[in-house]
Design a protein that fits this description.
Oligomer: single chain
Low-confidence stretches: none
Number of strands: 13
Number of helices: 17
Strand content: 15-25%
Number of domains: 3
Structural class: alpha/beta
Mean pLDDT: 95
Distance between the termini: 46 Å
CATH topology of the largest domain: Rossmann fold
Length: about 400
């Protein structure tokens, strides 16, 4: 992950481990990244000078994670970390690993008391500052959510059965998610393939906030609809579950990521036109027939889904935001001419940063003959659109625009 790979990619080899070992390895990966700024802050205090050996630095982070976040006895966490140093060809560092971790155990409260605010709250300083500035009344709750474990939400296939019917039929320990009629929140996560009715297309795994896209777009029978950045396909499939008689074009520039969408369409018994193309270049793929509705789930900083993808804390940089904003605006400008008069465009991100959300929409709408249909009951009102903060769902922004 430190080399630039996503956590999802980096964890793929863990699938070969026995279930109990796999669970521990996953927890160690997620929690070490979730609290990486905190552990790095502790290490800076524990070490007289930064380590030149990057792998040894990571080994100490993992040791601290076992001591702080996992239910592993201190003697076992220290012993395993020392053993790992030896097994990795760093026997010379075994004494250092032992001394650093035991020093932390002896003076834990003193070290924590010396941490700066960003390290103590386990967020990069730039991101902490942005969140505090954007959400002065909510930033503490946002950080708490970012450092927590995400809920597992199910999306019941409305073309097959209702959420209430699935809940009764499956017997799962779950509860409805208020405001999202297709969503159920599981009390404890489980593997998707073990969900009753999953293989038969009765249910899928999708965050409740993401499920709002299909409700806000409100697909109608016979409408031609574009999902412009469709992979991995959850929103596209939900649109079709809501209205199987619409004509959906699911577009994404990544053929590899579209394969998951095609698998889900088959599992759910749904059909759509699926195309690998760049939504920002419609001249390469558009057939000239305008769309009744367009969903643009734009590439973004993903700052609303940090608890689900904690590697964002390592990968994201403040310099990433301006290029993303340019890309978001280019996509909007490129897709607007493809929309019918009277048609609707739903702009969505999983970002908490206003410059990617209402900032983008404000700039885009200048000079456009467009209306903003109401979206009452969805998140918090913004100058344009609505913002959902992470909590029972992930963090999302939605803005619905009608072309006049």
């Amino acid at each position: 992950v430190k080399g630039g790979r996503s956590l999802t990619q980096a964890m793929a080899p863990l699938e070969a481990l026995p279930p109990q070992e796999r669970g521990l390895a996953r927890a160690l990966c997620f929690d070490s990244l979730r609290f990486w700024p905190y552990f790095e802050g502790i290490l800076r205090l524990l070490l007289k000078k930064p380590l030149k050996d990057d792998a040894l630095h990571t080994l100490l982070i993992l040791g601290l994670c076992q001591l702080e976040r996992l239910r592993i006895p201190a003697y076992a966490a220290v012993g395993e970390s020392v053993s790992l140093a030896r097994r990795s060809g760093r026997g010379w560092a075994a004494g250092l690993v032992n001394a650093v971790l035991r020093n932390f155990l002896r003076q834990r409260e003193a070290f924590i008391g010396r941490l700066d605010e960003a390290a103590r709250l386990a967020h990069p300083p730039w991101l902490l500052e942005r969140i505090q500035k954007a959400w002065p009344r909510h930033w503490q709750a946002i950080l708490e959510a970012n450092n927590g474990h995400p809920p597992m939400a199910l999306r019941v296939n409305a073309s097959r059965l209702s959420s209430a019917a699935y809940l009764e039929k499956s017997g799962l320990p779950a509860s409805p998610l208020p405001g999202v009629e297709s969503a159920l929140l599981l009390e404890e996560p489980m593997e998707a393939q073990n969900l009753p009715g999953f293989a038969g297309g009765e249910v899928s795994v999708q965050d409740g906030g993401a499920q709002l896209a299909a409700f806000l777009l409100n697909p109608q029978a016979g409408e031609r609809i574009l999902d412009a950045c469709a992979a991995p396909g959850g929103k596209a499939c939900h649109i079709l579950e809501r209205e199987p008689r619409c004509r959906l074009l699911a577009l994404d520039r990544s053929p590899g990521r579209l394969s998951h969408l095609c698998e889900d369409l088959g599992r759910l018994g749904l059909s759509a036109q699926v195309m690998a193309a760049d939504a920002a270049c419609p001249e390469t793929w558009w057939d000239g027939e305008p769309f009744d509705a367009i969903l643009l789930d734009a590439p973004c900083s993903a700052t609303g889904v940090i608890r689900r993808h904690p590697d964002i804390k390592l990968h994201r940089r403040p310099g990433d935001i301006p290029p993303l904003v340019r890309q978001q605006r280019e996509l909007l400008e490129g897709l607007w001419p493809l929309l019918k008069k009277g048609g609707r465009l739903l702009y969505a991100t999983c970002s908490l940063l206003p410059e990617e959300n209402e900032g983008v929409m404000e700039a885009f709408l200048k000079g456009k003959d467009a209306g903003l249909p109401p979206m009452e009951g969805v998140g918090l009102p913004r100058p344009i659109g609505r913002q959902i903060l992470p909590g029972a769902t992930d963090g999302f922004y939605y803005a619905l625009v009608e072309k006049r």
